[in-house]
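sanity check this record:
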Amino acid sequence: MVGKLIKHEVRRTLRWYLTIIAGAGLVVGLATLAAVLLPAPLNSLFTVLGAIGTFAVPTVIPVWLGIDFYRSSYTKTGYLTRALPVKGSTIYWVKLLYAYVLSLVALVVSLGLGYVAAIGFTVVGGGTVGDLNQGVSDTLAMIGDVLPGWAVAACLVLVLLWPFVWLASYYFAAAIGSEAWSSKMGVGGPILVWFLFYTASQVAGLLGAFIPLYLVFTEAGVELEVGVVNIFTTEAQNLLPVGVFLMMYVLTAVAIAWASVSFDKKVELR
């Protein structure tokens, strides 16, 4: 049954997903070509357009997936989804994990588009593709020299899990905002819950800054230190509070679990 659920997800989303990816690729490609061929100041304008197209992919995709989750689960289409002989929580997790894979692929695509857009910036600045490749190589080498292995691994984990942070906010808003207490507001329910969740995430991040765990950047590299630091009075610029990220991911896990229960037990279709 899980295979059938995935099949339904692919059929419903793949065309629009590929359209968004292809559209962004077309924008970035044409913008970079224009930046290389056109004179100033037009070339600079097109480099900015290429950058916008690059960053649009990993941001637009999760938003679109959140809207799709709402439409396929709580509008008229939701009746077809709920008619499947499988637990609501199973449907929810299939949708979430499938959306996560699409979001992760979008991040990879964004990296590729970012490289193409960087060609435009480099050429406009008087450089060549060879200069860009050398800059990328030097940057990677510097990261390897400065950051210890555990820090590189931690950064990779944070990046790989980050799509869940965005998806959790949209899925939570759609699920909780469609319960009995808010379903009468229509789409206003999910919008209201999203703003409340966003506010909670900002508060959680602020509270996380007080967790006595920090990354300290020095000339020798990066160290993980434990200690109480007043972030409002310290003049140190080389501290990164790890607790901010920890609280964000804890809130994400809570939102995902809460939305799973809501999707399974408290659904209100219109």
